[in-house]
Write a structure and sequence with these properties.
Length: about 450
């Protein structure tokens, strides 16, 4: 009897092992596969110019570009009024799977506040077009930036139009922040799409980006290409070990950037870095940007990131946590003051991508949005920080809240968006089981919160 039992156990074990092998083989490319790439033509002149911040000072800028496959003498011509100076650029050749390309970075420091500069990149005597940017105007006492979550545009997609429209509608915006996954995949073709997406935007306003999982090469251990910090060049000087972390002081705010894609020990290093930065921060407003939401709207995901960072968010009074990755909109006022009033931190998840995910409707969150692209403006000044969320297609206001400081110095939150109806439009594919389940979850959510809803699912 024992021998029969042992045999049955062995057969079951073997069947499970075979099933596991088949499943891994079927999923191998999804988890670990990187499609091959065609060789790319090098750029004859300075191309893919990108303006961003440099060190942690609001009056720093880095400008990166790409040209040819070998290093040539290169500089940035910077003009202010009738003065023009040449700033030497440093170059580095990076070989992607498409071939070699030379990347350059010019570092501008100690710029003048409230000043308009023009610049162009020059490599081997060949120049880019002239571009302009404006430095922070402290006398205004207030500044704004625009945030987008994942963009991951399709080739020839709409992101450039949406971003340019968003900037035109909010001319007070001084820089842009992306919550990672700006690029669909780390390939030349998708990087080219990204530069189309940010064309005419990221040359005139600093563009701050965090790493997302799509920025990494897939593999058993995922790898970030050197190209990423060569483009978002503040990381060249700010990274800790090979953790892409960065902090920026801007007006009365400090922004902290994390790389949430990493394995446990890297996240631990980032935790130590974040704690050190928060401890010495003198900023009135603290904003954290990372790709993976600390509180997921796709079930119990990202628990390691929550365990690593959330206690610091609460201990050091971070006001706003800007996140992406889950391709929907969600907002949670996560703190409570001693009298029961809503308080910081505010957690938001957002995206501006053509891809929409099927989410869970976690009751902690105060507001959701699905089947749409969004962007946010964050405006900081005096004793208030306001965040407004817009439908990226119509530019209609979708959500709004204000953080204000009371006479005890507590950072409380007023929900200004609770009466704006939520978008629950969803058309399920009748042959798709996951779609059907999601439609059911939406219906249940609508039943629980009829007061929040604009439209319902179509069957
Ligand atoms: Fe992602």
């Amino acid at each position: 009897m024992k021998t029969v039992r042992r045999k049955i156990t062995k057969i079951i074990g073997l069947l499970i092992f075979v099933a596991l092998c088949v499943w891994v083989a079927m999923r191998w490319n999804v988890w670990f596969g990187n499609p091959p790439e065609e060789p790319a033509q090098p750029f004859a002149g300075p191309s893919h110019v990108l303006l961003t911040f440099g060190d942690s000072d609001e009056l720093s800028r880095n400008i990166s570009w790409q040209c040819d496959t070998v290093i040539h003498p290169s500089s940035l011509q910077l003009a202010c009024g009738s003065d023009t100076v040449n700033i030497e650029a440093t170059g580095e050749v990076f070989a992607s799977r498409c071939g070699r390309a030379a990347y350059y970075v010019a570092r501008l420091r100690h710029l003048k506040p409230d000043t308009r500069y023009s610049y162009r990149a020059v490599t081997d005597g060949k120049a880019s077009p002239w571009y302009c940017f404006q430095t922070h105007q402290p006398h205004r006492g207030r500044f704004s930036f625009l945030f987008v979550g994942d963009v991951q545009d399709t080739i020839g997609g709409e992101a450039n139009r949406l971003l340019r429209e968003a900037c035109a509608r909010h001319p007070q915006v001084e820089f842009l922040v992306c919550g990672g996954d700006l690029t669909e995949r780390p390939t030349n073709q998708h990087w080219a799409e990204t530069f189309r997406d940010i064309d005419s935007v990221a040359q005139s306003m600093p563009f701050l980006n965090v790493t997302g999982n799509h920025d990494y090469f897939k593999g058993v251990i995922r790898k970030l290409e050197r190209r990423f910090p060569l483009v978002f060049s503040y990381f060249l000087d700010s990274k800790v070990g090979d953790n892409m972390v960065y902090t920026l002081n801007y007006g009365s705010a400090q922004i902290f950037v994390l790389d949430s894609n990493r394995e446990f020990f890297h996240l631990w290093t980032q935790r130590q870095w974040l704690e050190e930065q928060l401890e010495k921060s003198q900023a009135k407003w603290k904003i954290l940007v990372l790709h993976h939401p600390l509180y997921s709207i796709k079930g119990n995901n990202n628990l390691i990131q929550r365990w690593m960072f959330d206690d610091l968010v609460r201990q050091y009074g971070v006001d706003l946590v800007l996140q992406g990755h889950e391709h929907a909109y969600a907002r949670w006022i996560g703190g409570t003051y001693k009298n029961g009033a809503p308080a910081v931190p505010v957690y938001t998840i957002s995206h501006c991508s053509p891809k929409n995910y099927r989410i869970e409707f976690d009751e902690r969150f105060n507001k959701f949005g699905i089947s749409c692209r969004y962007y946010q403006t964050v405006s900081v000044g005096g004793d208030t920080l306001t965040m407004a969320t817009y439908d990226a297609n119509t530019h209609a206001l979708y959500d709004s809240l204000m953080v204000f400081i009371n006479h005890h110095g507590a950072h409380l939150v007023e929900d200004l968006g609770k009466d704006i109806p939520e978008n629950m439009d969803f058309t399920p594919d009748p042959t798709n089981k996951k779609d059907k389940k999601f439609a059911k979850r939406i219906q249940e959510y609508v039943t629980r919160h009829p007061e929040r809803i604009k439209t319902t699912t179509k069957n």
